[in-house]
Write a structure and sequence with these properties.
By secondary structure, the protein is α/β, with parallel strands linked by helices. The chain contains 9 helices and 8 strands. A hairpin with a 7-residue loop joins strand 5 and strand 6.
Length: 212
C-alpha cells in the first residue's frame, strides 16, 4: 500500500503528476478540485454554496472538505493506496487526516509566484457542462481553434477563479496556510520537494525514483 499527497501552489502541475502516478501505480487519484467542480454543478444547497465560494476565489470550509475526503478514502479502490491532490491545504486538515490514515509520501512541487499566475490565467474551460474540458492558451493542451472546444465544439471561457484577482487571492492563502504543513510532514512522512519548472517527464521521474 502506498498513500501519497501531492502539494504545491496552483498551476504547479500537481494534477498532471497525480494522474500519471495513478496510471503507473494503479491507485485512485483523488482531487478535491474535481470533487468540488462536480458539486458546484448540483442544484443543491451544498452545490450552490461550493459554487459561490469557488467563483469568489475562496476555499470550501475545513469541516466540509475533511468529511468529503474521509468518505472518499473509505471506498474499496483505496485499499492498495491513493494519491490526494489539493488536500490537505492547511495544518488542521493535515492533522485531521493523519488521525485516520497513514501517509507514506508527500510531494511538494514548487514554482515561482509569477509562473502560477501565468499558467492559471491561461486556462479556458468548455461552456458545455456535460463536457467541461479544460485547455490553456499558453500551455498544452491547447484547443485547435481559439475559443472552441475540440471535444464538443462548444465555446470556451475563462472561469472567474482563473482570473488574475482570484488567482492572487488563492496564492496568498496557499502560502499562508499550506506552507506551515511542511514542518509537520517532515516529521510524519517522507517529504520530497520538487522543481515544478522542470518538464512533466522530469518531475514524474523524480517522483517514481523516490517511491520505487
Amino acid at each position: 500500500m502506498t498513500n501519497m499527497i501531492i502539494l504545491g501552489p496552483q498551476g504547479c502541475g500537481k494534477g498532471t503528476q497525480a494522474k500519471k502516478i495513478s496510471k503507473e501505480l494503479d491507485i485512485p487519484h483523488i482531487s478535491t478540485g474535481d470533487i468540488f467542480r462536480e458539486l458546484r454543478k448540483e442544484d443543491s444547497e451544498l452545490g450552490r454554496k461550493v459554487k459561490n465560494l469557488i467563483d469568489e476565489g475562496n476555499f470550501v470550509p475545513d469541516d466540509v472538505t475533511i468529511e468529503i475526503v474521509k468518505d472518499r478514502l473509505k471506498k474499496k479502490d483505496c485499499k492498495d493506496g491513493f494519491i490526494l491532490d489539493g488536500f490537505p491545504r492547511n495544518l488542521f486538515q493535515a492533522k485531521s487526516i493523519n488521525e485516520v490514515i497513514n501517509i507514506d509520501y508527500v510531494f511538494d512541487i514548487e514554482i515561482p509566484h509569477d509562473v502560477s499566475v501565468h499558467r492559471l490565467s491561461g486556462r479556458r474551460t468548455c461552456s458545455n457542462k456535460g463536457c467541461g474540458a479544460i485547455y490553456n492558451i499558453y500551455l498544452e493542451p491547447k484547443s485547435k481553434e481559439e475559443r472552441i472546444c475540440d471535444k464538443c465544439g462548444s465555446n470556451l471561457f475563462q472561469r472567474m477563479d482563473d482570473q488574475k484577482e482570484a488567482i492572487e487571492k488563492r496564492l496568498r492563502t496557499y502560502h499562508t496556510e499550506t506552507e506551515p504543513m511542511m514542518e509537520f510532514y517532515k516529521l510524519k512522512s517522507n517529504l520530497v520537494v520538487l522543481d515544478g519548472t522542470a518538464t512533466i517527464d522530469e518531475v514524474f521521474e523524480e517522483i517514481m525514483n523516490a517511491i520505487l
